[in-house]
Amino acid sequence: MRTAVDTSAASATDEARPSSGIRGVAGLTRGGRDLAPWGLAGVLFLAYTTVSVLRWEKFGTRSWDLGIFEQAIRGYAQLQAPIADLKGPGAHILGDHFSPVTALIAPFYRLFPGPVTLLVAQAALFALSVVPVTRAASRLLGRGGGLCLGLAYGLSWGLQRAVDFDFHEIAFAVPLIAFSLEALLAERWRAALLWALPLVLVKEDLGLTLTAIALVVAWRAHRRAKAGDKAAGETGAAAARSAEAADDAGAAGARRALPYSYAVAAFGAIAALLVFVWIIPAFNTAGSYEYWNRVEGGFPNPFAGWDVKLRTLAWLLLPTGLFALRSPLVLIVLPTLGWRFVSSDDSYWGTEWHYSAVLMPVVVLAAADGIARSRRRGERAWLTKYASQAPLAAAAVALALTVSLPLGTLTDPAVYRVPASARQADALLDRIPDGATVESNIGPISRLTSRCRVLWIGNSQGVTPDYLALDNRSGRYPDPVAHARRLHPDARFSQWGSAGGFVVLKLVT
């Protein structure tokens, strides 16, 4: 399989030629800047926000994660430690995952306390990432091709799954990676490294992604320097002095970037190691990193669930026509896919949840780079023709897939109606007084974490709550009072209220 000889991006002539198969695409500009990427991002922001907020309004929360992050961000907003009692009474969030970057939401949360603030922030971060992806693709493929790939990216299944699954810290990683790769493709080597550096503050494994980005920067910068040296030796002196001078400057810049790239690569690996073996255990009540147990028997087994993993790879590469495989940028997916595929937890292997969101800007921009390479002179005629239609095809595929993805639900008028049972459940939970200690399962959590101390059901670790709040829509608790007695044998609870399939018990003695 060809990964192409890298003279970095296409030549200036190739980059300026619109070759998306879409001609005469007009749009708004301001001060010479194209506003279309921002317009696309704005539309997608509204769509992402609508999907996630409507799900929350209808009690469609799928896990405890939104509540955990709200507890941590509430702590930051109050200038206190980020305690997530859902992970255990007094549990420090940095002892679970190393994500101090979420403190950036705290000022907004202070102004607008509640889980919707987190959902809107996540939608804004995902939508922001559309801008660098679209701009970078436009530089490589022309404006029409860039907008097509920007749309394909914004509708990508990885982003849609993440939007539909509450809130997660990786929302910060997605735009950081997108801006970093935009700079890389434009040969702004130091900017690429600087955009990627904060990844170490997003999640513990992303230090390895930083290392991968830095190594790809080093690879391309090295090739750019070599190409510049070769051109300087072959160019006729008088005919191309200005071009030669520009090429010399580009090659010199690439050479200067090499030591920085290697230093950042080493920093990413060292930072990840320190976070895994020292920082997280220091904050963890058990003194360890609890996710090591996700590796079966202590040894990785990458062949377990191989069919699911192959389907995930297909979903990553096929929507953009396999062009990502023609760019070295695709190597940046390896750290994330690596830890996911060696884990014994099968929830990491597939296309559900939020785990693939960080891969989307990598795969789409690798595809843009691969398409640009395939259009150069000297490539096979069939490949050049195929590449000329690839951006439009990718947008069409993304639109077709969206029918079965979360954004596709926005075409159904019924999705905008909040059922009466949800309003009734809201009214019941609103009656729980502020500051109360509540033990809860998933459904009520994110209605309470902004104003109560919320514990996970069955994990109160000796703390007796004032209330138990249960989502009983499935009928899981035929006798809620008896269940409370099993959880807290020395306490007595009585049913305090029920509505919309939810039950609240109150401590009597």
What features would you describe in this structure?
This protein has 509 residues and is mainly alpha-helical. The chain is 53% helix and 6% strand. A 5-stranded mixed β-sheet has the order 4-3-5-7-6, sandwiched between helices. A two-stranded antiparallel ribbon has the order 1-2. A hairpin with a 2-residue loop joins strand 1 and strand 2. Helix 8 packs antiparallel against helix 9 and helix 8 packs parallel to helix 10. The longest helix is centred in the middle third of the chain and has 43 residues. The radius of gyration is 25 Å and the shape is globular.
Please provide a brief summary of the model.
The protein is mainly alpha-helical and 509 residues long. The chain has helices at residues 12-16, 36-57, 65-77, 106-111, 115-141, 143-154, 157-163, 173-185, 189-196, 206-234, 241-283, 306-317, 334-342, 360-374, 381-402, 420-430, 442-448, 480-487; strands at 29-30, 33-34, 437-440, 453-456, 467-471, 493-499, 502-507.
Stretches with pLDDT under 50, minimum 5 residues: 1-26
| Residues in β-strands, percent | 5-15%
Count every helix, treating DSSP H or I runs of 4 or more residues as helices.
18
Average pLDDT, rounded to a whole number, is 89
- CA-based gyration radius: 25 Å
Mass-distribution shape: globular
Largest sheet features: 5 strands, mixed
In total, the number of strands is 7
Topology pattern, helix = H, strand = E: HEEHHHHHHHHHHHHHHHEHEEHEE
| End-to-end C-alpha gap | 71 Å
Residue share in helix = 40-55%
Q: State the strand order across the main sheet.
A: 4-3-5-7-6
* Helix/strand class: mainly alpha
